[in-house]
Amino acid sequence: MGKGTGLGLTVAYAIVQEHAGRIWVESKMAAGASFFVELPVTSQLLRPKGPAGTGQQPLSLEAFQGLRVLVVEDEPALAVAVAEALTDAGFVVDRAGDGEEG
Length: 102
Prior knowledge:
This protein has helices at about 10-20, 75-90, and strands at about 20-30, 30-40, 70, 90-95. It has about 100 residues and is α+β, with helices and mostly antiparallel strands. The relative contact order is 0.12.
């Protein structure tokens, strides 16, 4: 109790791979790390997947302007904060309070 199993990223990676998506991390000294998850909404991928170390750079946020995203979060304050940040970045945001609603 109170300790993680250390499997969170492994489970997230497996889920993303199962859905033909991608997950990557960007880290900057003294700024923390950001994990990005990309899942296709159609059978057409947003960009081709490349093996790690190919030098392929993630697309800028401008490439995703106007795309619709679904935020599923059961903590209302966090849901609002995430939805606002995504809206500010140019996404069209739908929200759901739990997995069933999502």
